[in-house]
Amino acid sequence: MGLVGAYGSVGRQVALLLADSGRLRLGGRDRQQAEQLNRQLGGRAQVCPLDLWDESSLAAFCSGCGLVINCAGPSYRILDRVAQAALAAGADYLDVGGDDPLYERLAGQLPAGRRVLVSAGMLPGLSGLFAQLPARSFQRIDAMRCYAGGLGRLSNTAAEDFLLSLGNGFGQAQMAWSAGRLLRSTAPAEQWLEREWLPVAGVQAYPYLSTEQQRLFADLEVGHGQGFNLFEGGQLAAALRRIQGSAPESRHSPRNIAALVQASALDVAGRQPYQVLAVEIDGLSEGRQHQASAWLRASDGSRLTGSVAAFCALHWDRLPEGLHYAARVLDAVACLEQVRRWLPDTRVSLAGGLAAGPISTLEVEEGVL
């Protein structure tokens, strides 16, 4: 397996989890950092210097790999560059990001018998997968609200990727889902959210409907669906508001990237980082109206993203052939169980007494909305 972006925060987690699964090839521009990671792995991997913007370097890296895993970013700038090199080398492809722009570029291009999985991280990926668990106990879903966000410092790459995603197919602010179509959200543009699953008294919530949520709501035939981005601290949210008011072509400028990184650092200063995914459902369950909620809280989004990608790689042969979004083909229960084993500080609650299958290692906590 070839791992692109191996010594980044996400790639490092993937490498640590896959080191025992077979020969791992570590790729990155800085050979010294890749060698340092390999020493941490006990020298079990192969280090292969890689400049993903050099076609010959990328082709050489992918040559001989059965599966190429891309953890490099920004994914909205890389797009299908690594994917096409992997496919040309005869390899399958797994991307922790990519999202709709990558999916659209690869649709209809895969040779028979090949597998490509995109959006195989925390958000999107686990966010869409996790929301399916409480939904299983409903015969009809009248309303579903999905929440994602938290508190953590952004890297330069993550900040640039976030800004590149604005207006680029990832989702839309102030939009909602109703009866199978998009419409303007009636929720306030900014609101103070208080829930028992938040580690603080309250956070800022902004209506934002991602394309992953649109697929989720369509698949589950949700009557009314809404997504919310969560921010604690206020600095990052304020910086984003300023940037979104600027011209689209300048939003991902070095100045704005630096502003996002600095704002996230100010928010997290002296506080405990966390990322939360949550879902609330109203609908028909066992013949009566029912409300339920579920939430997942982790300390590090990068490690959570890497863990989801590693799970995909370890179960690769069980996945269907073709091009897929991770949330549509992964086993939700098995993925959550494995994530909990790898990241025991990750808390998961399925409230309201819902049992979404034999979830042997998950905490099941009662709760109300």
TrEMBL record:
The record places domain Saccharopine dehydrogenase NADP binding at 3-96
Coiled-coil stretches, from where to where? none
Give the matching Gene3D superfamilies: NAD(P)-binding Rossmann-like Domain
Any one Pfam family match given in the protein's UniProt record, by short name? Sacchrp_dh_NADP
Name listed for the protein in its UniProt record: Saccharopine dehydrogenase NADP-binding domain-containing protein
The protein's organism comes out as Pseudomonas sessilinigenes
